[in-house]
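Q: Got a minute? One more chain.
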Amino acid sequence: MPAKADDRHRQGQSGPSGGKAVAPRPAKAASKKRDEDVSTEAGEGADEWGAAKTLVKPPDQLELTEAELKEEFTRFLTANNPHAPENIVRYSFKEGAYKPISYVDQMAIHLSLNGNMILKDSDEGRRQSIKLSTSVEKAPLETSAVTSGEAEVKEEESTGDTQAAGEEEAEAEGSKAAEVTEAAEPEEPPSPRVKEKKLANQFNFIERGSRTLNNPMRDRACQSEPTPCEDFSATANQWEIYDAYVEELQKMEKSKEKEKPKAQIAKREEEKKKGRKLNSLESQSDDINKISKAAKIMERMVNQNIFDDIAQDFKYFEDASDEYRDQQGTLLPLWKFQYEKTKRLAVTAISWNPKYKDLFAVGHGSYDFMKQGQGMLLLYTLKNPSFPEYVFSSENGVMCLDFHNDHPHLMAVGFYDGNVAIYNLKKATLQPSYKSSAKSGKHTEPVWQVKWQKDDMENNLNFFSVSSDGRIVSWTLVKNELVHTDVIKLSVEGTTMQGPEGLQLQTLGCGTSFDFHKKIDYLFLVGTEEGKIYKCSKCYSSQFLDVFEAHHMAVDSVSWNPYHLKVFISCSSDWTVKIWDHTIKTPMFVYDLNSAVGDVAWAPYSSTVFAAVTTDGKAHVFDLSTNKYEALCTQLVVAKKKNKITHIQFNPVYPVVIIGDERGHVTCLKLSPNLRKMPKAKKGQEVKKGPEVEIAKLDKLLNLVREPESEAGK
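A: Always. Here it is, folded:
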């Protein structure tokens, strides 16, 4: 009987999972509950099936016709946020102004949830997995321990008393039935979940798609020409190498013997043993000289690649908008030349080389007499804007310079301390080839301008200089020495003073600029600090040919017209530029530029075009044949803050100008077509060119000014 009870007990445990197994009578309540659960689940599913067929419309749904429902709408989705602002402005503390922000964040966050997922491989994940596994293992162990304890009690009861077997059997059956009911009671079914009713989609199916733009594929290929190759083979033995070294040493010894006098041959023989290392160093310097030319060409090629867009503008760009500007023009900035060691030095002189049209010299010094120091002389080329071709330093500031027309390698330079010097670019020395001194009659004040003149009767090189000490000096190179001759002394009229013992003391004028006539060799003009312009001759050292009361302040520049023999131009710190006929004491044209004028220059391609620069950082370009009253172009070249333009020069061939400022920078600018207009060709007629045409063009303008004066004189 006890064995049968165990079997029934086991069947009761495995009844629900077995399916066909018949449960004992006391477990009827549990089976009824399960049937009720199954029936409720089936009922819920039937309700959902029925609900899907019924149409449930939300209260705010639009009522559309069949045609509106069938209509398709296509949308292209982009990555840009339509609600993102496009004109955000932020304050820039660096520039001190409000600046628009170019980049706007296009990301829009619709949903953001902070998750609590943990990686399995992390320390926290391993702790939680171990904790879960131990809790699962403990639950089956406790249930098995309870069942084994009950079996042991039943065995002891069955074997303990054999006399009351029938009664005990009935009691055992009753107790087991109670145990089954107790075991069935805790296994109550979970409460049924109330599922939410889902509304079916009441709209027709619409196909939606998004498409992004695909960038078109482009194939690009370049092929370079193969470099020429040559096969060369040779064998070198020890004796061939030895013979080559011996020949090289013999060549070096012969070259040294030719350079040095014979008296030093004996000393050289004694020093041969010690001078092996020196020979190797000299050979290295020779190798460097051989490489330097190739390295210079390579540097120019690299710079032309870096500044390729500027080089293209320099050669080909023509501003097409000039056609719509009503004769106005512009200056296109090209290269900017600068050198680290000249950042605190002003540009005091600029001059183009007469032979190499891309080469120009720049003198650096200071116009502030309280801040005088060293000066520098640099030569730049348009082929290499990043570094100067030649660099010369001096103890005093460079104030002026000029190239020789027939010998373009010779350059005359004037310094702040009154000295003049000649630099020879062919010599590889950093010092001037010839320089004046106190013994040779140097100036006592700064030299403001130097000009080369034709060689004298004995074919000696000759140049002139003007200084604040009132002397105009002619310097002649005789037997490798500079010999000076005072041409004229600038005396100021009405300033004679009575000195001690009845001496007549006369104050000298301060010369600031001068220029020699292009055709009449002896005639030249001198501008002074008092504002006067003297017309002088080389033949008279004590008298002036004429005096022009030109300006109210110092004359900064005076220059003859390159075409017309009678016309010259002057500029001054009194804000004016004046054009003169040297036979008339009153100016032909006067222009007020609203700021001190630092320099003025005639254009080499036209008799009526000139340019001037002012201290407010602007460049002004005039063409008298187009507009007699105002400039065709007034353009800001440098920033106004603590910077001023000092000099301007036209290139003799290319349509560019170079402008120097007080910070040591030189800017190259290209003239637009309106600033260099040539006469247009008429039908059936050839355009006349040449100096005669230019002279006639300027004469026509001067006659308009002269006519009223002549009529008044009559």
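A: The radius of gyration is 53 Å.
Q: Perfect, thanks.
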